[in-house]
Amino acid sequence: MDLVQKILILALIGCVIYIVIVFFRTRRDDDGARIAEYLQRQGCQLLSLKMVPIAVQWGTDRYSRIYEVTYRKAGGREFTGRFRTSSLHGVEPLDD
Fold first, then answer.
1. H or E stretch including 68?
2. Domain boundaries, the chain
3. Which pLDDT tens digits describe the chain residue by residue (96 residues)?
4. What are the residue ranges of helices labelled H in the chain?
């Protein structure tokens, strides 16, 4: 193989790696289901879910997403809170 073929193969491998990383980084389709399942385990019902596009995240990985969630507890009261979710760490509430 000459130098041009080696460069083309390396460029192709780099493109494939980039596409795979972008695909897994932007997978947000299961976030709603993950948060709804978390709330159901707590005895709550999910009412609305809105992603917070820009939020300060301290001490977390770059691939987590923050959502503003409105939910109803078992007693019937509605609450709005923020939750952080990622494929690696699951769901955690940010508001106490």
1. strand 65-72
2. 28-93
3. 799 999 999 999 999 998 887 676 666 667 888 899 999 999 999 999 998 877 666 655 667 888 999 999 988 999 999 998 887 778 988 875
4. 3-25, 31-41
Closest by CA to 54, choosing from 69, 66, 68, is 66
Extract the tokens encoding 3: 């130098």
For residue 75, give the amino acid letter. Answer: G
Q: How far apart are CA 35 and CA 15, in angstroms?
A: 33
d(CA 70, CA 45): 9
In what helix (H) or strand (E) does residue 90 lie, and over which residues does it extend?
Answer: strand 90-93
